[in-house]
Amino acid sequence: MILLTGGSGLLGTELQKYLNCYAPSHETMDITERYSVSSQFDLIAHCASYTDVAKAENDRETCYKTNVLGTKHMASLGIPIVYISTEYIFGGGKGNYSIDDSPDPINYYALTKLLGESMCSLAPSSMIIRCLFKPRPFKHSKACTDQWTTGDYVDKIAVIIAGIINGWNKKGHHVLHVGTERKSTYDLAKQSRPDVEPCLRSDIKSVKLPMDTSLQLNWRSNW
Ligand SMILES: NC(=O)c1ccc[n+]([C@@H]2O[C@H](COP(=O)([O-])OP(=O)(O)OC[C@H]3O[C@@H](n4cnc5c(N)ncnc54)[C@H](OP(=O)(O)O)[C@@H]3O)[C@@H](O)[C@H]2O)c1
Predict the structure, then answer these.
(1) Residue 54 resides in a domain
(2) How far are the Cα atoms of 7, 50, 123 from residue 65, in angstroms, in the given order?
(3) Owning domain of residue 81
(4) Closest Cα to atom 36 of ligand 1
(5) 197 Cα–ligand 1 center, Å
(6) Could you state, in chain order, the average pLDDT of each consecutive group of 10 residues for the chain (223 residues)?
(7) Number of domains making up the chain
């Protein structure tokens, strides 16, 4: 049986369609606290996270506690862990990032997700999945034409991640780059929201967005 954290979130809600899992609410299991869990769980799918990229800049303590200490707590339970990380651990200067490229996060949220990755070595085995996903339909009225990603809609990415989780032999420590073809955020947005208007990253004042965090995908071949 899988223990799924973040089950009420965008990805967690979608994953529950495909996983045999128990998904405690935030209130039932706050990951910033220490727990011991039942031996019935043979894998943790760790989706709980502080995800508000703009707010994280001024709410660093909560973001750190959730994304770094929370992941430390989950990885220390003695159970194989699947950790959902992000394209944003890369700064976006070059795109087509391989798992051997050095991370250079440009915002605090991404820094804590990177630190969370390092906590996974505390688990007996781990699968770090770097990805990006959006709700369908795209929720903003504008989307950037000068930002590129291998991310996709959450329904598509969740199917891939669920397949990886269900097929993993729970051995070793792995980093997977998951996604679809490289495209601009605007082109992705248009697929589900034809009236979306083009904008530039410099038009978005609330958060600093990386230019090209597209990944060299390795999830078909390397785990
Ligand atoms: N969205 C993206 O594009 C994207 C891209 C790459 C990676 N990721 C990663 O994918 C994972 C899922 O993201 P998402 O977009 O589905 O997130 P989300 O919709 O913001 O959901 C976050 C989940 O975490 C839970 N949570 C937050 N703090 C918690 C705590 N202290 N204890 C227990 N649960 C807590 C939330 O519960 P409440 O709502 O009840 O507080 C919610 O279920 C995260 O690790 C995120 O960093 C997301």
Answers:
(1) yes
(2) 19, 9, 18
(3) 2-140+148-182
(4) 6
(5) 27
(6) 98 98 97 88 98 96 98 97 98 97 97 98 98 98 98 98 96 97 98 98 91 94 54
(7) 1
